[in-house]
Specification:
The structure is a homodimer. By secondary structure, chain A is an alpha/beta fold. Chain A has helices at residues 9-26, 61-69, 78-89, 149-152, 154-165, 173-181, 185-209, 219-222, 225-238, 241-246, 257-268; strands at 32-36, 40-41, 46-47, 73-77, 97-103, 107-113, 116-117, 213-217, 248-251. The two termini of chain A are 25 Å apart.
């Protein structure tokens, strides 16, 4: 179901409860896993104040769901859920360590080490979209500069395309990739640059973590193997030889289901 | 004992064996832990070809030491040993997760998560000195560009100071810090810039890993609390609020002993 977040917090939650009720009518629910945009306190199960969920502030979603349905509930960042999903049932099934990057409106990411999410001391780890690749670069909404999210997210692609073409027309990252595929030179350049930035960010990840596998997800990675392959080449050129030779790069297997499966897994782990 | 690496591989190894023999005369040795410059294959215990150990190439040090003294031996990257040492017996004793950065000739680093080193799929993880903070920056010997090691290592400080002062005189990072302390404006600027670069790199680490603690080691961090404090301020300004508020930054407690203790711990874990 779509979130329909613009209908406001209470409406989203009541629709969520209805959906669980429907499932509970046919299945015996033992636990409920909730994937949700961050930042959130996953231990206490509190949604703090996600920029993507207007009106949500300190919502004790774990407690609310747990009480209502009288089963234990787990709450986890949606990107972490997607990473866990790919790790247990998708592209990372055979990998001992894996990093997931989802290139969407922003860049979501997850770090899975030996089958377990690394969520950090406070549950705020793996914000790899806000690793800066140019500390003197443009300002990011997060307060930092040159975050990779500014370059390699769908939003970043559209922003850079509009700037390059002096255009104010409505445009999506899909349009840019389609135009590049049709031979539009400006769009081609934007796509190539995006692969370059992404490759540089992957090199940083590989040097820092030496993971077995990197999984790329989101519309842009489905738009063409060429884009992913180019980013991979840049990474192998930039990262240290020992780790970059061994790391594998692939695309998501589960697509939008990854987050659902990961959230369910989180509940199973309770 | 100093390594005296210029005397060549065989001489270094024979002096190492003599040292162990001396200890074995007074103590009952159960296992031997070896900390060594990377890159190395820590599982097989093979020193690959460290730039800091000329003449060493594919040396099976674990096998050599183990056979000679008939005890199990463990081999680990020296920066990882230092991180493990600080974690089990030093500044990180009470932290559940810790990142160590040693600012020396290069930048060594270690990632300790829940008391265990994260060494990566092939043992090459935590090369945080080669995380780029400016992908269009100056070329690094590793093949990448803008690695933080170029800015915040002792070598980087000296290089930048020489460039700023048009000087070819012999100079150490210690000199630069001492001159800055005495009010030399150019030196002051280099030290401040170094803290800035280091702070930006710390922000990347915090956003990626949300560790409980960051431990800084090496001569420069002993040169003045002001330098470390400034880097810490930059980090807190740049990193995401949730994780940067919670992370602690401190300096090494064990100094040069950290690596010895960490190597011994590695042997204990066998």
């Amino acid at each position: 179901m779509p979130t329909l977040r613009r209908q406001g917090r209470d409406r989203v939650i009541s629709r969520l409860f209805d959906a669980i009720k429907d499932i509970a009518a046919s299945y015996d629910i033992k636990a409920i896993g909730i994937g949700c945009p961050g930042p959130l306190d996953s231990k206490k199960g509190i949604v703090l104040s996600p920029p993507n969920l207007p009106g949500w502030r300190n919502v004790r979603i774990k407690e609310m769901v747990g009480k209502r349905f009288r089963v234990p509930a787990a709450v986890e960042n949606d990107a972490n859920c997607a990473g866990l999903g790919e790790s247990v049932a998708g592209a990372g099934k055979r990998a001992s360590s894996m990093v997931l990057l989802t290139l969407g409106t922003g860049i979501g990411s997850a770090i899975v080490l030996e089958g377990r999410l690394w969520t950090g001391k406070g549950g705020f780890a793996s914000e790899l979209g806000h690793v800066s690749v140019d500390i003197n670069g443009p300002r990011c909404e997060c307060g930092n500069r040159g975050c990779i999210e500014l370059y390699a997210s769908a939003t970043g692609v559209v922003r850079r395309m509009k700037k390059a073409s002096w255009s104010k027309a409505a445009l999506t990252a899909e349009d840019v990739f389609r135009n590049a595929g049709r031979g539009d030179k400006k769009a081609r350049k934007i796509v190539d640059e995006t692969a370059y930035y992404l490759g540089c960010a992957l090199a940083n990840i590989v040097n820092a973590l030496d993971p077995e596998l990197i999984v790329l997800a989101g519309g842009m990675t489905r738009a063409g193997r060429g884009f992913v392959r180019k980013a991979e080449q840049i990474m192998r050129k930039r990262a240290l030889r020992e780790s970059s030779r061994a790391v594998k790069v692939t695309v998501s297997k589960l697509g939008d289901d990854a987050g659902l499966i990961g959230a369910a897994w989180r509940a199973k782990e309770l």
